[in-house]
Amino acid sequence: MDQSDDLSLKERLKECGYKFTGQRNDVLDVLVKYSGRHLSTEDIYNIIKSKHPKIGIATIYRTLMVLYRLGLVNKLDLDDGLSRYELVKPNEDHQHHHLICSNCGNIAEVEGDLLESLEKQIFLKNKFLVKDHHLKFYGLCEKCRQISEDK
Ligand SMILES: [Zn+2]
Ligand SMILES: [Zn+2]
Ligand SMILES: [Zn+2]
């Protein structure tokens, strides 16, 4: 994410009545810096802690909840019971899909919605307007697939 994305994010936050404090800024900075990654509260805590040893994990958790309620952060719940967080991409009204490797746990993203025809069918058949979705695919990433084929 470049500087201008960062700015528009902070503008969006201000519009939502979001108050900037040092600690909240730290959480945001980490999410911007590690965009494309999916970080747990613990991951974010460990990154910030190296700079600000006094920060508490509860502060980070509360900040993430605020950002989530404002619709600025996506939450990805995995089977290990940990939620991962990422910034909502500015031009995304339906959430992107995630590919989760059952072997190494790597999380990759699918570009594009790709569900337009399914969403249209649901609208026609079920009279239901799809506004968003959380789609997780489980399988093997390229690296793990190659290792399992070599055996
Ligand atoms: Zn969609
Ligand atoms: Zn893998
Ligand atoms: Zn994602």
Rg of Cα set: 18 Å
Structural class: alpha+beta
Tally of individual helices: 6
State the helicity in percent bands.
40-55%
What global shape is seen?
A: flat
* Series of secondary-structure elements, N-terminal to C-terminal: HHEHHEEEEHEH
How would a textbook summarize the main sheet?
Answer: 3 strands, antiparallel
> Which ligands, by name, code or SMILES, are bound?
zinc ion
- Sequence of strands across the biggest β-sheet: 1-3-2
> How many strands appear in the DSSP assignment?
6
Q: DSSP strand (E) fraction?
A: 15-25%
Average per-residue pLDDT, rounded, comes to 87
Distance between the termini: 39 Å
Unreliable stretches:
none
